Amino acid sequence: MSSIWAEKYRPSDFSDIIGQDEIVRRIRSFVEQKNLPHLMFSGPAGTGKTSLAILIAKKLFGEGWRQNFLDLNASDERGIDVIRNKVKDFARTKSIGDVPFKIIYLDESDSLTREAQQALRRTMENYAGTCRFILSNNYSSKIIEPIQSRCAVFRFKPLGKAEMGAIIGRISKLEGLRVGDSAKNALIDSSEGDCRRLENLMQSCAASSPDITEELIYSTAALAKPKEIKEMLNLAINNRFVEARDMLLNAMLSNGLAGLDMIRQIQKEVLNLDWDSSKKMKMLDKCGEIEFRMVEGSDEFVQLEALLSGFALLGP
Questions:
Q1: Using CA atoms, how far apart are residues 98 and 143, in angstroms rounded to an integer?
Q2: Are residues 148 and 180 located together in one domain of the fold?
Q3: How far apart are CA 245 and CA 183, in angstroms?
Q4: Of 62, 141, 226, 243, which is the most buried if we count CB atoms within 10 A?
């Protein structure tokens, strides 16, 4: 976790892991038996994968957990050498304490090269008696099947509105912040189920003022307000193209948004428009086409103007 608050509010007990109840229940039973299979944590960022891995080590090894826990970020060290050297050297030594194995945590393991994954596969076999692996990734499909078959796979889900609301309430109380209902909804909407992003955003807002408002959140997160996006879309659909384009350019320049950021916000607000489903489907199809063109290198301003003109042609 990157922010000071994210470290400050890192869970200290299994009950502190929010929104992953079934996963926590099964992991707790492993820890109580002091026996783990190899584990794979897969899911979006900021949902508790790293926190749960560290919590497992703390509960198993107590005060000496750091001597028995190797934390590697596979996106930084993704080649075969890290598996042959660091991982193998740590795995071949015995653990300190009464737990018969150490733990190696490979964060962002989907960044490992295919050769590194093949080497990891053999290491997991050869040192199963002295070491357990916890692999964390966003996309389990990028992990080769032989590794997946050696792991108990746990799929993490984005945190829901209720869980995010509970986190906001807890942090607000401990930090002496005042967060109104509109600001709370803005925090939840901006974070998209990512607890780490939520804590970073709250910390950034709190540096400016203990009164966290909707305006402060959107300016800090560098996002356009949903009502502005919705107004722009309504202008485009009602054939007021020039006004819609001016509002689009102003939103991008004043908030420092890239074209892809704007596309994602537009896509979210399309679903909230008071239009029939067939028009919404055509608008979403157009969003996908424009996003593809931008990813391929097309000029973002020209493509966004093309998007608005496409919406205008769908109008009444």
A1: 32
A2: no
A3: 28
A4: 226
Range of the domain at 53: 20-155
The tokens for 4 are 């000071």
* 178-179/211-212 β-pairing: parallel
Residue 214 sits in the same domain as residue 232: no
- Determine phi and psi for 40, rounding to 5 degrees: -130, 120
Domain co-membership, 118 together with 76: yes
Q: Are residues 127 and 111 part of one domain? A: yes
The tokens for 173 are 């109380």
Q: Does one domain contain both 63 and 91?
A: yes
Question: What tens-digit pLDDT sequence spans the chain (316 residues)?
Answer: 445 656 666 777 888 888 888 999 999 999 888 888 999 999 888 888 988 999 999 998 888 888 889 888 766 665 666 667 777 778 788 878 788 888 989 888 888 888 888 888 888 888 888 889 999 998 888 889 988 998 899 999 988 888 888 888 888 888 888 888 888 888 888 888 888 888 888 888 888 888 888 888 888 887 888 888 888 888 888 888 889 888 888 888 877 778 888 888 888 888 888 888 888 888 899 999 999 999 888 888 899 989 888 888 876 6
Domain count, the chain: 3
Which pair of structure tokens corresponds to residue 69? 């826990």
